[in-house]
Write the structure tokens for this entry.
Amino acid sequence: MAFDDGTKAVDLGMIAGWYPQLSFLSLRCECGDAELFPYCLPASACFENVVHLKVGWSIYIPMDDFLGSLEGLLGRCPSLKNVTVNGRISGYRSYDYNHCQKMTCFNNAMVRILRNYANVSLHEPQAQD
């Protein structure tokens, strides 16, 4: 999918239609992608057979955008059993109260979202060499 400004995004609705037996879905949001997510995941997109969802980001994106995207994806994967969330938090300083507060809010939001999916296990990403 291409937008007028040249931005390109994956059409997850097409992937869901073309690969109905897909059981593992891995998505990585890059800078600004979270804003495009509503356009990439049409209401009809459903990943019936996805049992493992891996999501992450490599550049700063607003946590609310990422969490909203994650929640939207979870709702479209009815067979989901495992979720892996992997992201980079750049510029984080443990001694900065505001940074600690943001991390606390993110963790609380993840817990809130996953409580709605009691049958889904949250996995830690594997360490990269």
